[in-house]
Sequence to fold (129 residues):
Amino acid sequence: MGALIALRQNNCRAQRFTPLFRYISKKNPLVYWFCIPVDSKDRSVPFHIELVGSLAAVITTVCWIPQIIKIVRHRQTASISLISNVTLMLGVFLWLLYGLMIGSWPVIAANGVTFLLILAILGLKLRYG
Fold:
């Protein structure tokens, strides 16, 4: 088991990545590493493309704030679908995991914040029903 952990760690380091965290399954004693880039200068995506992605991430994340403000002011959530928001939250959570796996900070940050905002909307939906 220790050799497998070392092998996975060395595999991350050999590819200029560092291990972020590990998951050990009880059924299968394999260790899965999620790696993040060590050197930010070594980019596989050009800066201007990352900038477009970051701008899109900010816009699509901030768009949930007016919905939260409206719910808090009016305390009315009848027109908000619980099923669609739960489904959206699951999708955003999977995007967050994907971002962690590929080490893309715009994907991680945007989906982490969006997940929290949608979680707030769902909490308000359950509170004001």
Notes: Confidence is low (pLDDT under 50) at residues 1-8, 28-33. The beta strands are 17-24, 31-37.
